[in-house]
Design goal:
Shape: globular
Radius of gyration: 15 Å
Number of strands: 0
Strand content: under 5%
Helix content: over 70%
Largest sheet: none
Distance between the termini: 28 Å
Number of helices: 9
Order of helices and strands: HHHHHHHHH
Length: about 200
């Protein structure tokens, strides 16, 4: 049942995005605006912001990446406007924070890796989008970049050794003149609780 809901969410986000940007001239701006509205539309019916919200954001972002691909924009070029739109959408519903920046970056990089997209360009775009929106969520550029980097690194760890190496190489270079700090991979994984 949960898989059916996730697939529906991804398809709904994709369809909304395609309707919003098809035929526009300024695709990056239209993409950011469409993602903002898609995030608001997707999350308005939830019962509030909670632990599951990050997963919803990642799934919504996956749908947006698929929608962008359908109108001819690859994940690498779409990453920055999708990140900007996601942050703005979360801010509109009163829930902007670095955990959602991380979730959006995870969704972006995971989508790129799953579709054999350009993982380095997607990582760079996700961090650039986070840096561009840092003031909007009240954090420094370094904090926003690190949140995006953590999400990208976590997605890359799940996606395999090649994606992980590509993400780490991009992050080691720094992005948009910002030094990016990320936690070690084993710290990125959420601790599992064992019931005895």
């Amino acid at each position: 049942m949960a898989t059916l809901h996730v697939n529906h969410l991804v398809m709904e986000a994709k369809d909304h995005l395609v309707e919003s940007i098809r035929g526009t001239v300024d695709v990056p701006a239209a993409l950011a605006n469409a993602v903002t509205m898609t995030v608001v539309q997707t999350l308005k019916d939830t019962r509030g912001i909670g632990p599951a919200t990050s997963g919803l954001i990642a799934d919504c972002v996956k749908g947006c990446v698929r929608g962008a691909a359908e109108v001819g924009v690859d994940a690498g070029r779409a990453a920055q406007p999708i990140m900007i739109g996601t942050v703005r959408g979360m801010k509109l519903i009163g829930a902007a924070g670095t955990e959602f920046v991380s979730a959006a970056a995870e969704g972006l990089v995971r989508s790129a890796a799953e579709s054999a997209g350009n993982v380095p360009a997607t990582t760079r775009g996700a961090v650039q989008g986070a840096v561009a929106c840092a003031r909007e969520i009240g954090v420094s550029a370094e904090t926003a970049a690190s949140a995006a980097a953590s999400g990208a690194a976590q997605a890359a760890e799940w996606s395999g050794a090649v994606a992980s190496r590509q993400v780490r190489e991009v992050l080691a270079e720094g992005v948009s003149g910002v030094k990016v700090l990320i936690a070690e991979p084993n710290r990125l994984m959420k601790p599992r609780r064992y019931i005895r």
